């Protein structure tokens, strides 16, 4: 069995980008609350602008690039899935409903049988 070691290398610039993105998010939140007296438009504009800048900065880092790669790989895998046709979906849904009805009847019959055995035959309670 071969063991593959994965080594992640994070540069100082990459860490700085992530820290700056985090500071931009925090700055957006602080600006939102401090700009309350200026009006909702100014508040939301500052928040959205700083959050957008944080997202752009995050996606330029190695973590962001690897997140984008993960998303692309996931989308590629979703395209490989063979989805059922409408007819197959309706058939399987019908099977599930039929099974539920059969199981409900079975459990009801079992419950009533046990009730009859315990209360009427063994204990002799009449309702």
Automatic annotation (TrEMBL):
A GO biological process held by the record: intracellular protein transmembrane transport
Top-rank taxon: Bacteria
UniProt keyword Ion transport, yes or no: no
Pfam families: SecE
UniProtKB keywords: Cell membrane, Membrane, Protein transport, Translocation, Transmembrane, Transmembrane helix, Transport
Cellular localisation: Membrane
Cellular component annotations (GO), alphabetically ordered: plasma membrane
TM annotation in the entry: 18-35, 41-60, 89-109
GO molecular function: protein transmembrane transporter activity
Main location: membrane
Classification via Gene3D superfamilies: Preprotein translocase secy subunit
Record's subunit section: Component of the Sec protein translocase complex. Heterotrimer consisting of SecY, SecE and SecG subunits. The heterotrimers can form oligomers, although 1 heterotrimer is thought to be able to translocate proteins. Interacts with the ribosome. Interacts with SecDF, and other proteins may be involved. Interacts with SecA.
Family statement drawn from the similarity comment of this UniProt entry: Belongs to the SecE/SEC61-gamma family.
Function: Essential subunit of the Sec protein translocation channel SecYEG. Clamps together the 2 halves of SecY. May contact the channel plug during translocation.
Entry protein name: Protein translocase subunit SecE
Encoding gene per record: secE
């Amino acid at each position: 069995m071969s063991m593959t070691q994965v080594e992640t290398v994070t540069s100082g610039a990459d860490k700085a980008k992530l820290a700056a993105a985090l500071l931009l998010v925090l700055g957006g939140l602080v600006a939102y609350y401090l700009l309350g007296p200026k009006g909702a438009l100014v508040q939301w504009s500052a928040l959205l602008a700083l959050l957008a800048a944080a997202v752009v900065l995050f996606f330029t880092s190695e973590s962001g690039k690897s997140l984008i790669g993960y998303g692309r790989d996931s989308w590629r895998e979703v395209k490989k899935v063979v989805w059922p046709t409408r007819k197959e979906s309706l058939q399987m849904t019908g099977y599930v409903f039929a099974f539920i009805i059969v199981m409900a009847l079975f459990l009801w019959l079992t419950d009533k049988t046990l009730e009859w055995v315990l209360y009427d035959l063994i204990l002799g309670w009449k309702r």
